[in-house]
């Protein structure tokens, strides 16, 4: 994150000037009676500890050059410098909640329990106000989930972090653009391709602002939808190709089972349905059991193992092509399978 001078939007105000403005509202949670700095955003006041902020963030350090408050009987009467910002109160509330003493900010980040609004606010304000530590931790939070690692991605229980919704993939793409973190884009754009008409409308952030994809990324998603459907169907066809394992002891029965899986795939989708709703063909990087379970197939052990190997191989090959599929370039995109492995015959062979 590049360094620059302190943002011009942040200015000090004399306490008397602050009182002359329309009556501000004290934040219910972030008003500490012994606080030594007031942050004012959208006429909401947050009374916090300037020393604590100045120790961690350069933008607040020049506040220490101001005289310390004179003690009095009422902490509310302490003279307290104020810093006015043009950002939303909700954004600052999200940021300050993570920055105050005894906050669980980095524990929350490590535990993957941050909301999208919190991550978005910390990245946007962190970049704007040089809050490097917080900025970096929240960017890493996104990189940990929207990963370049095949095994980590397929190990996720869901495409989005636990506290994110499907639509938040739109915001993740925008944050990737803001931060220049291209490695986040392939999986985030893939998640966007599975959205329906909501991809056009986007979503409303907690501060009331609308989050929508940029025109170029929106076009990428529309172009990628068809490619995602095509590669997913191709992977399923390869996985359930009706040739049995060389070690199969019940060839005809397993061959019929594989043909049945192909019929189930055909029934599950049509070209029109798939184009309108890519989820109908299943998670492109998910198991073939989205079509039918292994119990439903009733394959012998050798053929079931063969299908599992085919399935994994198809997903790894798709992963290798993911940036291309969603229309972005990512330098050094890790390959889940090497070129020489792609040329090898499937484990178990066919007969």
- Give the oligomer, counting copies of the same chain as homo and different chains as hetero: single chain
Helix content: 40-55%
Number of helical runs? 17
Question: What's the story with the biggest beta sheet?
Answer: 5 strands, mixed
The CATH H-level superfamily of one domain is Potassium Channel Kv1.1, Chain A
Strand order of the largest sheet: 1-5-3-4-2
Care to count the β-strands? Answer: 7
CATH architecture of one domain: 2-Layer Sandwich
Distance between the termini: 57 Å
Shape: elongated
Q: Brief description of this entry?
A:
The chain has 17 helices and seven strands.
What does this entry look like structurally?
- This is BTB domain-containing protein.
- InterPro entries: SKP1/BTB/POZ_sf.
- With 351 residues, the protein is of the alpha/beta class.
- Among the domains are: 129 residues, Potassium Channel Kv1.1, Chain A (2-Layer Sandwich); 114 residues, no CATH class.
- 49% of the residues lie in helices and 8% in strands.
- It has 17 helices and seven strands.
- The chain has a five-stranded mixed β-sheet. It has a two-stranded antiparallel ribbon with strand order 6-7.
- The chain is elongated and about 85 Å long.
- The N and C termini lie far apart (57 Å).
- The N terminus and C terminus are likely disordered.
């Amino acid at each position: 994150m590049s360094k620059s001078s302190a943002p011009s939007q942040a200015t000090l105000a004399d306490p008397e000037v602050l009182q002359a403005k329309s009556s501000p509202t004290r934040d219910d949670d972030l008003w500490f009676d012994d606080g030594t700095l007031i942050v004012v955003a959208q006429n909401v006041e947050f009374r916090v500890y300037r020393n604590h902020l100045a120790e961690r963030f350069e933008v607040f350090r020049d506040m220490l050059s101001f005289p310390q408050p004179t003690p009095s009987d009422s902490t509310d009467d302490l003279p307290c410098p104020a810093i006015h910002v043009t950002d939303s109160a909700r954004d600052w509330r999200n940021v300050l909640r993570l920055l105050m003493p005894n906050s669980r900010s980095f524990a929350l980040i490590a535990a993957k329990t941050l909301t999208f609004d919190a991550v978005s606010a910390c990245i946007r304000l962190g970049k704007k106000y040089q809050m490097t530590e917080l900025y970096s931790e929240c960017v890493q939070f996104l990189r940990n989930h929207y990963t370049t690692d095949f095994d980590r991605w397929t190990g996720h229980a869901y495409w989005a972090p636990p506290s994110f919704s499907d639509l938040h993939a739109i915001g993740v793409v925008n944050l990737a653009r803001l931060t220049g973190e291209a490695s986040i884009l392939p999986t985030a754009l893939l998640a966007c391709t599975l959205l329906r008409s909501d991809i056009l409308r986007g979503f409303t952030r907690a501060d009331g602002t609308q989050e929508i994809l940029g025109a170029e990324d929106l076009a990428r998603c529309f172009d990628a939808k068809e490619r995602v459907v095509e590669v997913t169907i191709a992977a399923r066809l390869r996985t359930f190709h009706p040739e049995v394992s060389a070690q199969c002891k019940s060839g005809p029965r397993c061959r019929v089972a594989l043909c049945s899986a192909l019929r189930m795939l055909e029934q599950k989708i049509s070209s029109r349905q798939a184009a309108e709703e890519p989820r109908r063909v299943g998670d492109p990087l998910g198991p073939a059991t989205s079509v039918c379970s292994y119990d439903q197939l009733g394959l012998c052990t050798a053929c079931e193992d063969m299908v599992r190997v085919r399935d994994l191989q198809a997903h790894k090959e798709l992963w290798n092509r993911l940036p291309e599929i969603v229309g972005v370039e990512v330098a050094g995109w890790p390959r889940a399978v090497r070129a020489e492995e792609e040329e090898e015959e499937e484990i178990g062979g066919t007969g």
